[in-house]
Amino acid sequence: MKAAIVALLFAAAFAQVRAQAMDVVDLPTRSGVTERIAVIAADSPKATVILLAGGLGRLRIFDNGSIRNDGNFLIRSRALFAQHQLAVVVVDAPSDQPNGMAVAFRESAEHVTDLSAVIAWARAKWSKPVWLVGTSRGTQSAAHAAVALANDARSPDGIVLSSSILARSRRDGGTPIQEQPLDRLKIPVLIVHHDSDPCPICAPSLLRELKLPATGSKIVMESGGISTGDPCEAFSHHGYNGIEGAVVADISAFITGH
């Protein structure tokens, strides 16, 4: 009964998210390339979150701000971040990656250039701290960009890594988060993970291998919710199904606390 009530409550919240008005910007990033972003401008935001989805990151943001592929944890929860006085920027795959972003692209200089342009745009628009928030494969984007932009004026003010990639995949490889030199960063780092994440490349036991900055970093373990479908997809514990509000609250509290 309790699970059914939770599911009904989130269904209502999910409908509200879908109805949330969003502005759409096609931001030039590289020669001949644009990055489409959807924006929720919160009233008097304390900070900006740039949301980086997992998988191929191909969201298909339409001109009216609706998003075809919005099942990802961060994307379906986008309006919840705005409720915590955060401006929200949802990032689609860039125009030169029509089939989505392979892991090799997420770890490329081109991707860093795209994300640094989005960071600069958000910083200029709101004059507030800008955070990269990635989930699953999006953590590889956020971590790689933060390391590449360390000590650069284009660096994010902090990063959040949710359901991090902690092992290599035979299918598409990519650098696990613990192999990134995160401990060298001088910005806050928040790690959020479900204690029962069933995705093999995101096993919670591998979190012990992470090396984080000595100050300004934290690991938050979430629990509960409903796990259904593919273990590495958005509606298993990997995607915080049923506990989205609590997870967003934890992330938002860490960001606004800095």
- Output the CATH topology: Rossmann fold
> What's the level 1 CATH class?
Alpha Beta
Radius of gyration: 17 Å
User: What strand line-up does the widest sheet have?
Assistant: 1-2-4-3-5-6-7-8
Q: Give the oligomeric state of the chains in this entry, treating copies of one chain as homo and distinct chains as hetero.
A: single chain
Question: Which structural class fits the helix and strand makeup?
Answer: alpha/beta
- The total of beta strands comes to 8
Query: Which series of helices and strands comes N to C?
Result: HEEEHHEHHEHEEEH
Mean pLDDT: 92
Main beta sheet, described? 8 strands, mixed
SS strand fraction: 15-25%
Task: Give me the CATH superfamily.
Answer: Alpha/Beta hydrolase fold, catalytic domain
Overall spatial form? globular
Q: What is the CATH-assigned architecture?
A: 3-Layer(aba) Sandwich
Number of alpha- plus pi-helical segments: 7
